Amino acid sequence: MTKKQTILIGVLALILFLGFGSYQYVMKGGGRNIETETADYQVQAKDLLVEFNTDAATATKKYLNKTVEISGKVTALEKQQLIIENSIVCDFSKNSTARLGMPSKIKGRLLGYDDLLGEIKLDQCLEVK
Q1: Which of 75, 116, 121, 123 is the most exposed place for a label (fewest CB within 10 A)?
Q2: Full DSSP string of the chain
């Protein structure tokens, strides 16, 4: 292996390492503690869905990576994930105590909108009492 090839491999490894580290930092919320943050927006689930279905680009610009409080009916439930109004997927770091079919208020970080599935995705979610 030549010296140029060795340097190239080293540079590529460094780029991959930095890229992976940046991805982990962003996807884990960058050290944010959503529990202690005040919500940037408080919105009804149906209203949020209308915003994204009407103009996804504008809604994404408004809500992306923001702390939001969403109120709506729980339509699906697993240990660490629940779905509100069939379209808002909330990932919890702890088990949720929400009940299927009941209204709930959830606070979390909005990660984005999947227009193919029509889903809004949140992480670091917790129930607001």
Answers
A1: 116
A2: --HHHHHHHHHHHHHHHHHHHHHHHHHTTTT--TTTSPPSEEEEHHHHHHHHHH-HHHHHHHHTT-EEEEEEEEEEE-SSEEEETTTEEEEESS-----TTSEEEEEEEEEEEETTTTEEEEEEEEE--
